[in-house]
Amino acid sequence: MVHAFTEDRTQAELYYQARCRRAKFPLPGPIVVHGLTQTEVERYSRQLVLPELGRQGQEKLKGSAVVVVGAGGLGIPTSVYLTAAGVGKIGIVDEDNVEKSNLHRQTIYTEDDIGMPKALVAAERLRKMNPYVEVEPHEARLSSANAMGILKGYDVAVDCTDNFPARYLINDACVLLGKPDVYASIFRFDGQASVFQASRGPCYRCLFPEPPPPETVQDCAVAGVLGVLPGIMGSIQAVEAMKLVLGLGEPLLGRLLLFNATDMTFNELRFKKNPDCPVCGRNPTVRKLIDYEEFCGMRRATPSLEEVAPLELKRRIDVGEKIVLLDVREPFENALCRIENSKLIPLGELGRRVGELDRSAEIVVYCHTGVRSARAVGILSSEGFRRVRNLKGGIRAWAEEVDPKMPIY
Q1: What is the pairing mode between strands 181-187 and 190-196?
Q2: Which of these, 58, 298, 347, 391, could form a disulfide with 366 (CB 3.0-4.6 Å)?
Q3: Are 167 and 196 in contact (CB under 8 A)?
Q4: Structural domains of the chain, ranges and CATH numbers in brackets
């Protein structure tokens, strides 16, 4: 439906004219909004009166499609603002369910949503927020098998993930598809953001050619994050995505924006396209998506790794078997919850503190979810320990299967 406002000037037009006079922009003629319903004109009136956006810009937003990968701390504010702004189609990609520990920063969810799929809950809330936007949930983990199929249906991809395999995957898929990648990440009180588009500048691999060693990577569950931080960085991602759709301003191409919430400062690091980049360089060697968990070293399993299930470990403890429980988490995690009679040696200190452990004893190592403890088993095995096992699923699985009163973080 086409609505023309000529003789009957709307409040939005009057406001628009006044803004133009104050900003010394050339006064436009009567506002004629094509492709927008009258209700949409009223809904987006504060954007329509922006001379830099106007009718054509709002129609560009309505005709665009943006996919948000990750419906967590970054993805929620990004998708909320894109929905409110009138982006015509928004995809939400996430395989996880809502957890209680999400609620302090993922503000679209409530306690009633715990256990529900994030993608489906987020899509329902976004549709209620703006019924003029098509929201398409993808209840799946983005992978090398489905990334090209999912991302090709959108104009812009927004990377709201929290792990390195996903970041390299999204980058490579966007380079191969010729699409921009709006990136952000958060850690404790710090955030960073950039835009990658191989046709106009560097890609993610130009900035980070190699992933960090897996043992040095901490996620929010381990390191923590200030709840408001992803709201700030996700809002920046929404701005950058809208700028790309509108062709407005200067996107963060070749610029890494660094934010520190403790002293409220923004800094900028400039970087250039790497001519030898294996994905976007002069002679690319990556011409299809690869195994990104292997690329990031996530599949380097300990050959001799043996695991014990929480219920089996509880049974053996109850019958009096002598087992040394080794907690390789950080002290602040141990303060939140611990298995009784366990010894705390953080993973980063284990190599120099192996002398504190009895080499002849049976040792069961645990961490939060079983990843760090698996590395600890490898360290102890290399030091000559022969009776070392990993608690499958970590203390989280112990809380779920053995001790339901134990806090889950």
Answers
A1: antiparallel
A2: 391
A3: no
A4: 3-56 (no CATH), 63-295 (3.40.50.720), 307-401 (3.40.250.10)
Beta bridge partners, 137, equal 92
Q: pTM of the full predicted structure?
A: 0.75
pLDDT digits (tens, 9 = 90+) for 266-275: 999 999 999 9
Q: Give Cα 182 to chain centroid, integer Å.
A: 11
Burial annotation 3-15 (CB, 10 A radius, 16+ → b, else e)? beeeeeebebbee
What are 364's strand-pairing partners? Answer: 325, 389
Q: How far is CA 168 from CA 36, 206, 278, in A?
A: 38, 11, 12
Residue of 284, 283, 313 whose CA lies nearest to 391:
313
Cα–Cα nearest to 329, from 369, 361, 270: 369
**How many Cβ atoms sit within 10 Å of the Cβ of residue 353?**
11
Give the residue ranges of DSSP H helices in 152-219: 164-177, 204-207
Question: Among candidates 46, 43, 15, which has minimal Cα distance to 28?
Answer: 15
Burial 201-229 (b: 16+ CB within 10 A, else e): bbbbbbbeeebeebbebeebebebbbeeb
- CB of 374 closer than 8 Å to CB of 390: yes
CA distances (Å), 84 to each of 159, 164, 226, 240, in order?
19, 29, 25, 15
Query: Which of 59-63, 180-184, 244-248, 374-378 comes out lowest in average pLDDT?
Result: 374-378
